[in-house]
Amino acid sequence: MYKRCIPLVMSIGLLSGVLGVHSLWAQSTSPEAQRLQQLLESRDRQVKALLNAGPLTPERRARLKEQINGVVDFETMGRLALGPFWKNLTPAQRQEFIQVFSDIVREQSLADLDIYRAQVRYNRIEVRGDSARVLTTVTYKETPTQVVYLFTRRDGQWKAYDIIIDEVSTVDGYARSFQSVIRKRGFEALMNSLRKKQAQLTQSTSS
Fold first, then answer.
1. How far apart are CA 49 and CA 202, in angstroms?
2. Alpha-carbon torsion 19, 114, 106, 8, what sign?
3. Contact in structure between 132 and 112 (CB atoms under 8 Å)
4. Transmembrane segments in this chain: where (predicted)?
5. Contact 50, 60 (CB under 8 A)
6. Is the whole model's pTM more than 0.85, yes or no?
7. What pLDDT is stored for residue 78 in this prediction?
């Protein structure tokens, strides 16, 4: 399935508007939809400026990673992924899980910059109260894919908490994987696996 070609970490970057081709916007009429559109356009300009600024130095890499992932609500995404197991965790466990989980996604978001040369069409922005959906069509290697981003507004800021690729929810995918490990081997086993992945990515980045 093509959706495997656009994993979470890549679709996050596409959400930021990192486009080597061009971005097409459908008409957005509500003030909140326009504000959300302006947020994404602003990130587009900032990320493209970093990509076009020359070699990816450690400093520029850190700034690019922050721009790509800055629109993501990792706390909500992680809480939904753990489902019923979240309520049984201590505050310290929750904090470490979100930190490790977000570190992994942030590091992986720079694994393949070529994906950001895809063409993205923002078809429609739907806003209802503190929730929003951004409906897009991503064309990568001449294959179009429907990608929907779900947003929530927290403290006046819009943050994405789920990405649906060809009608498959990214959060649901994480939920199946994470909750299966917890049911079979416990939360600490999940954390050990995530810590190992985090260490591998950190070592790869520093080498």
1. 25
2. positive
3. no
4. none
5. yes
6. no
7. 96
Contact 102, 79 (CB under 8 A): no
* Beta strands, E only, 20-174: 23-25, 119-128, 131-140, 143-154, 157-165, 168-169
Q: Is residue 204's pLDDT more than 80? A: no
Distance CA 121, CA 135 (A): 9
**Structural tokens at position 120:** 């993205």
Under the phi-then-psi rule, with left for phi > 0, alpha for psi from -120 to 50, and beta for the rest, what region is 195? Answer: alpha
C-alpha to C-alpha distance for 177 and 187, rounded to whole angstroms: 12
Instruction: Please write the tens of the pLDDT for every residue from 27-84.
Output: 556 888 888 888 877 777 787 788 778 787 888 888 888 888 888 899 999 999 999 9
Residue where the block lists tokens 């994480």: 174
Joined together, the tokens standing for residue 115 give 């994906």
Residue 159: CA count within 13 A, CB half-sphere: 14
Q: What is the pLDDT of residues 90-113, one digit of tens each?
A: 999 999 999 999 999 888 887 777
Contact of 18 with 10, CB cutoff 8 Å = no
E strand spans, the chain: 23-25, 119-128, 131-140, 143-154, 157-165, 168-169
Q: What CATH number does domain 2-198 carry, 3.10.450.710, 3.40.30.10, 3.40.630.30, 2.40.10.10?
A: 3.10.450.710
Q: Is the pLDDT of residue 2 over 50?
A: no
